[in-house]
Amino acid sequence: MKIKHKEIGIGVRVRLTEDVEMFNCTYTKGHEFNVIAEGERGFDLQDDEGNKILETRLMSHKLEAI
Questions:
Q1: What is the pTM of this model?
Q2: CATH number of the domain that residue 49 is part of
């Protein structure tokens, strides 16, 4: 039996599976975002407070769809 995992794409809500350090802050494991765009450099994410992480290609393994 094949069970398809929920795919990540525009409009999908995602959760961090690890802490992510950015230039001036750290988003902790479990922080949730919405995927607002998708391109060859990865997903663009926005959380409920309007904070954005753009071009997540190098950290896409730290995201899970919820």
A1: 0.85
A2: 2.30.30
